[in-house]
Hints:
The protein has 104 residues and is of the alpha+beta class. 35% of the residues lie in helices and 29% in strands. A hairpin with a 6-residue loop joins strand 3 (74-76) and strand 4. The longest helix is centred in the middle third of the chain and has 19 residues, at 50-68. It starts with a helix and ends in a 7-residue tail after the last strand.
Amino acid sequence: xxxxxxxxxxxxxxxxxxxxxxxxxxxxxxxxxxxxxxxxxxxxxxxxxxxxxxxxxxxxxxxxxxxxxxxxxxxxxxxxxxxxxxxxxxxxxxxxxxxxxxxx
Length: 104
């Protein structure tokens, strides 16, 4: 488990990584005051395509490894990259692929 100060800097680096690659619809949920929550912070964002979503995941992974020498505990969904989950213990990241909404 990361210390509170370190988990906040990891959170900030995750947000910065998403912004660097122009991730969209960034939502941060602060769950730190909820007793028995599965994490302290929950980050949600979208990418334009599966390639974009995968690039965001890779950017987050590289930046956190470089700055904090931490790897995610678990990563899911990288095969199709329609929805990617990254678990950094205190911070969980969901990266969704934006779907085109066309009326047929």
